[in-house]
Amino acid sequence: MANLWASKIPTYAYDFTYTRAPFNFPQMPNAYSPTGHFQALAYHTVDIQFLFQNFSGGILGVNLDQQTGLPRELQGTEVKLSDQPVAAWTNFAVTGNPNGPRALEWALFKANSGPFLQQDIPTSKYPRLRPIVWRSR
Q: Which of 48, 53, 83, 130 lies in the 20 to 30 Å Cα band around 74?
């Protein structure tokens, strides 16, 4: 999608790769995991709870720690990670550019070359597009 828009309008792209965020669904069994349950890593919509305080999009109405299964909100370095996209989205809404106060430097995306802002702990940039390849087992 970023490639499509980057040749037409200023485009900023990110990849949210943090894998220890609270999960908003009950623990699901997984006999192949050493923990005995499924661990959702960097799943679709995980970033929303980092943008909107107290967001819980699951059927439980609460976010759960993936290790203990107990309710928990963002904590420690997760709060700092949350502050960065909040600042960037706020700057973008006001100026059309995510860069500015309290936000990380977010380079303009160029079609077929990037960079993506990788939102994780720690946050970084990576230059090349990484295609998502789905393979059946």
A: 130
25 contacts: CB under 8 Å, gap ≥ 6 = 40, 58, 59, 60, 64
> How is residue 40 written in tokens?
């959702």
Q: Are 78 and 50 in contact (CB under 8 A)?
A: yes
pLDDT in tens, 4-53: 888 888 999 888 888 888 888 788 888 998 888 888 887 888 889 899 88
Contact criterion met (CB below 8 Å) for 57 and 95: no
* pLDDT at residue 2 tops 80: no
CB within 8 A of 106, min separation 6: which ones? 12, 14, 88, 98, 99, 117
User: Rounded to two decimals, what is the model's pTM?
Assistant: 0.75
Collapsed DSSP state (helix, strand, coil) of residue 121 = coil
Q: Which residue has the tokens 């900023």?
A: 12
136, 130 Cβ separation under 8 angstroms: no
Residue 102: both structure tokens together: 């309290």
Q: Among 74, 69, 70, 3, which Cα is nearest to 38's?
A: 69
